[in-house]
Amino acid sequence: MTLAELNTISQPQLREELLKCCGSSTWVKMMMTYFPTDNMEELLENAEELWTECSDDDWKEAFTHHPKIGDVESLTKKFASTAEWASGEQSAVNTASKETIEALAEANRLYEEKFDYIFIVCATGKSAEEMLGLLQERINNKPEDELRIAAAEQLKITKLRLQKLIA
Which residue among 3, 32, 48, 138 sits deepest, i.e. has the most Cβ atoms within 10 Å of its Cβ? Predict the structure, then answer.
């Protein structure tokens, strides 16, 4: 879809397309006010600015729209509308060893138990082993620090998805 095409779709369609990029309903509502737009760079700047204005709860809502790293089943079932993007973002997991996949699953479980949301990382370009290492490092963070880190990772994902949407 081009930016010009995105500018002409209905409001409900625009909302759905933006939700594919970021699952925060507050962020989507604020972003919709910036359309129509003819400047991709400005759109990405607005996306970042509005993300920083979102609350902790808005961030956590966005996190619920992601599959767990390495969870192929949740990629295909719960996240059908973004499965292609998410599977591409997590493609390194497909070549990971069984041991790494099992370690990711266990680390994900411990992370979610501690923070009450799934591990968020911009997985593009990272190996499964790198993601596991990041998960194991970040699980030691204080909750308030980790939430900021996860939100920053979500912003990276959102910007990448906006760029994929308008390709």
Answer: 138
